[in-house]
Amino acid sequence: MCPDRSVTHVPGCTAHTILVTWQNVQQYAAPTVLSTFQLFADGSGNVEYRYQACASAVSVLTGWSPGGAARDRVGVDLSVAGPFECRADSLPLQHSPSARPILGTTIGLDTTDVPASSILGATILGVTQFHSGIDLTFLGMPQCAAYASLDVFATAIPSAPTFSYPLSIPHNLALVGSHVYTQGIALVMGLNPLGFISSNGVDLSIGDQ
Questions:
Q1: Would you report the helix, strand and coil content of the chain in percent, each value rounded to 5?
Q2: How far apart are CA 159 and CA 115, in angstroms?
């Protein structure tokens, strides 16, 4: 049986602010044990859980999640934790080679932790490294950076949570000691204005053994 709920309008709140109040909610099988608490949310994405007089006879679970493959937020005892920070709901893209870049071999350049809603992936390969990364906020990709020049752009259809690009390294001794810089990107609509997110960068130093 669901508790009684009411939506409370507070003067001064904007049209994008809601308050949901549970007032004097009875504990199951204990009608005299009452709790009052509230959920606050606004249009900027802030969410607060506000507690007044609450029964403490039973364990209580409080939380919010987008569902699906959201990350485990780890349990927190709110009565003693004080202010705390929530982690992001999804892991950032991770980019790594499947093996060492050796002459005469083919390695996979794997991009993992691709969101299930991604509709396109790409591996970027370049001969120039941007060691500190170029901030891509100006493109509509806040908190993303470019670590490799865009000399090769190889697209792929992700098979979540990963996609891979096979890099064949010729058996040419002149290539020993040369570098290839690479990273992955994915098209995930809605995560930022442009819709693309980027991974870390990888520096491949080619060897002969």
A1: 5, 45, 50
A2: 10
Interval 11-42: pLDDT, tens:
445 557 888 999 998 887 888 888 888 888 88
Residues 152 and 172 sit within 8 Å (Cβ to Cβ)? no
CATH ID of 94-205, from 3.40.30.10, 2.20.130.20, 3.40.920.10, 1.20.120.80:
2.20.130.20
How far is CA 90 from its chain centroid?
A: 3
Q: Order of strands across the sheet with 94-97?
A: 94-97, 106-112, 162-168
Locate tokens 């919010």: which residue?
A: 64
Contact by Cβ (8 Å): 149, 127: yes
pTM score, two decimals?
A: 0.63
